[in-house]
Amino acid sequence: MGEQPTQRMERRVNWFLLKVANALTLARLCGAPVLIWVLLQTPLDRRFDWIAIGVILGLQTTDVLDGWLARRAKPDIHARVNPTGEMLDPVADKLYMNGAYITLMALGRVPLWAGGFVVARDLLILLGWIAAYLRSGVRLLPNLLGKAADSVQALALLMVLALPDNTVSTALLVLVAGLTVVSGVSYAKNALAPPQQA
User: Fold this and answer.
1) How far is 93 from 89, CA to CA, in rounded Å?
2) What separation in angstroms does the CA of 48 have from each of 12, 56, 110?
3) Phi, psi values for residue 142, rounded to 5°
4) Phi, psi of 82 (to 5 degrees)
5) Alpha-carbon distance 163 to 90, whole Å?
6) pLDDT score of 40
């Protein structure tokens, strides 16, 4: 029996949703070097702080939208929803976030301890992904702690740019460090956990 019209339409809608989601992820990936360049201009002109804030908000918006679109698509039986997005999405996130923190550390606008926690955690997550995949073929998915840490990291970037040398910015960086450590430990536990038997 051939494919029903409703099934064909659903497949086309899914294809469109995933293409848009992947395009947004690629936009975020391409936006990472743009953000780094803008941040490097901030010592020369403080107006670039606000441009950087706009870029960060745009990157965060693409992160929300691509995930939302991918979840709207219904996977085929025995298939992952969006294997391309599963690979590119964390790469885009880590590239833009780590690039921003490393740049601001180099400019002296983020303390080394705060940015160091962010970079170290993501290196730990990368090693965890590799270890989990080599051991059991399992891909580590973002958990609630990891998403919370990522959100606070982005918020701290915005505050550092909008309110430099402010108590709120410092408090957020302390929170970033704490959540980053806790989420990193959580990812490590998931990576080192014995594979579940079917």
Assistant:
1) 6
2) 42, 12, 16
3) -60, 140
4) -150, 80
5) 28
6) 97
